[in-house]
Amino acid sequence: MNSSNKKIYIVESRDTRLAIKYNPLEDAIEGIVASRDEHLTYLNKVFAAKVVNIVDSLDGAFLDIGAKENAFMTKRELCKALDIPYAKAKQLPLKQLVKRNQLVLAQVSREPYQSKGASLKAEISIVGKYFVLLPQSKGIKYSRKINPLSLDQTLQERLTENGAGIGFIVRSQVTETTDAEAVYDDLLRLIAVWERLLNQFKLTPNMRCLYEPDTFEDEIYRRLYEMRTTRLFVQHDSEREALIAMGVQNHDIEKLKADRTKTLGLLDKLESLLSGNSFKTPSGARLTIDELEAFTIIDIDSGTFTGDQSKDDFAYALNLEAAETIKQLLLLRQISGVIIIDFIHMPTQVQMNFIEKCRERYFTRDDDFSIHGFTAMGLLELTRKREKPSLRASMSFDYRRGDLYHLALVSLENQLRRLSEHTNTKRALVVCEEPLYIYLRQRPIDGTSFGITLKYEKRNRAEASYAIQTLPD
């Protein structure tokens, strides 16, 4: 195996699973997928949803999808789901169009929030690595980054043939591979998912979830995996089977070796990435990222960036390099919402050119960014669609502090397993900060599963959130 190949390590604790994509050549983390058992999400799930309450005054109905609060679907969306022309049904009472306990095929378009239930839509979309399937439409659409004529000719013919019967969008990720067979297989997999989902809907007598996207393995396949250039290291056979079902090649998967040194090192790198707020661009400019509750603020300092350009050219070049680094950090840390960036000052005309370049290269719609322009104070405003908490928030007990205790628990459990596998330790003391201590007293790690009896002790805040001390037998 080429040592420059990228590697994905799957590492976990009881309630957290992480997949970390690592580039040995650059000694850098290039992507992270995280899954927390307690984070139940409904977004983009497809349901046979049951109508429970029809409310003409709200121009819609409430449907049961198994959540605490019933989901809401507008009359327009219900008409689409029932294949009823909205123009003809607009003036009719909703009770003439749909009945209580009727099942409707629907997809969650907005998560439940506080006391409000989810929102539902009728047009189903199924996202793959190279395509977004739009099964209720026909025809092919292409990402703006793609020139259809540049695609493999045989692949073009196959896509055109399928597009006559079912709709889909060709994603920009197609340009990142030369394997036309892998691309086409992804489309066939999505079509098979839709056909299976539709058959289940026709046969089910009760409300049920028919399709659950963004599973841990699905996200690994779509966001991290590159055929023939990526090796995956899994801990369980079930993970191997799930990844193969997604489209990962069997020969790209290996069982994670007992030596946990590499994964522990990657967890340390991940902690530095999430806990730090100061970063450097390749040429030495410094970025400061403050991830706040309402928005994220990023400041750029020229640092040691030097050159013989004019002042405006200098600012433009530095800002472009900073924009590339900022994009990488935002994607790695999975930051979304409102983002304010204080770039080095540029004249108005240069700002306009800079915005266009950023839209093309860095803050693109493919990654859900929208650039809103520079304020009167020279700050760039952009937003990124928020679907879930940032990685720092999801790995913390208290998202406002960014304490990363959930990440510490992953590291702690793997440290203990490494201690069990490589030493004769039978007893150990875990000394940790109060929040971790309280958590572990309520949900202690089952050390007997790997041969170590554990005790816990509280300490005041220190440099590390926990420490392990071996005890005599």
How many helical stretches?
Answer: 12
Number of domains: 4
Question: Rg from C-alpha positions?
Answer: 25 Å
What is the oligomeric state here?
single chain
- Give the termini separation: 43 Å
Low-confidence runs: none
Biggest sheet architecture: 6 strands, antiparallel
Overall 3D shape: globular
Structural class: alpha+beta
Beta-strand residue percentage: 25-35%
Number of strand segments: 24
Chain-averaged pLDDT: 89
| Helical content class | 25-40%
Q: Can you describe what's shown?
A:
This protein has helices spanning 75-81, 86-89, 153-163, 180-203, 216-224, 237-246, 261-275, 311-333, 348-361, 391-394, 405-422, 434-442; strands spanning 6-12, 16-23, 28-36, 46-55, 60-64, 71-74, 103-110, 119-121, 126-127, 131-134, 140-142, 167-170, 208-211, 230-234, 253-255, 278-280, 286-291, 295-301, 337-342, 369-374, 380-384, 427-433, 453-459, 466-471. Strands 4, 5, 6, 7, 8 and 13 form a six-stranded antiparallel sheet that branches. Strands 16-17-18-19-21-20 form a six-stranded mixed sheet, covered by helices on one side. The chain starts with 5 loop residues before the first strand and ends with a strand. The mean pLDDT is 89. The protein is of the alpha+beta class and 473 residues long.
